[in-house]
Amino acid sequence: MLPEDKLWLSPLSPRDQKKLLSPRRKKWKWLGFSEKTLRDWLQLLGVLAIPLVLALGTLWFSAQQHQMSDAKMKNQHDTALAMSQQQREMVNASIVGLGFMMETSQ
After folding, report:
1. What's the confidence (pLDDT) of residue 97?
2. Amino acid 63: pLDDT
3. To the nearest 10°, the Cα dihedral for 21, 25, 36, 5?
4. What is the distance of C-alpha 100 from the center of its chain?
5. pLDDT at 59
6. Domain boundary assignment for the chain
C-alpha cells in the first residue's frame, strides 16, 4: 500500500496541532523565528554579544582615561595655584622685611 521510498509519519497530536496553528506562531512565522532552536538563538546571541562587549569595553576604557586626565589636570592646577600662593607670600614677606629694615634704618 505504501511506496517503499516514502517514510510514514504518525499524525500530530492535538496539542502539537494547536501549536502549529496558534496565532502567535503564525504572527512570527513570516520573520522566520518560529523554526529557530535554542542552539540557533544562543549562536545569534554569541554573535551579537562580542561586538556589544567590545563597544562597551571601549566606552568604559575611554571614560576611565578621561577621568584620569581630568584628575591629572586638576592636580597640575592645584600645584600651580599652591606655588603661586607660596611665591606671593614670599614676596609679601620680603616687602614687609624691607619695610621693617627701612623703618629701623631711619
Report:
1. 79
2. 94
3. 20
4. 64
5. 96
6. 35-105
Which sign does the torsion angle of CA 73, 75, 76, 77 carry? positive
The count of other CB atoms within 10 Å of the CB of residue 59 is 10
Q: How do residues 11-49 score in pLDDT, each as one tens digit? A: 778 777 776 666 665 666 666 766 778 888 899 899 999
Q: Are 85 and 93 in contact (CB under 8 A)?
A: no
Q: What is the DSSP letter of 10?
A: P
User: What does the block give as the cell for 40?
Assistant: 540557533
C-beta separation of 28 from 34 below 8 A: yes
Query: What is the mean pLDDT of the segment spanning 92-99?
Result: 82
Distance CA 80, CA 74 (A): 10
DSSP letter assigned to residue 3: -
Query: How does pLDDT run across 53-83, given as a tens digit for each residue?
Result: 999 999 999 999 999 998 899 999 999 999 9
Contacts of 19 (CB under 8 A, 6+ apart): 25
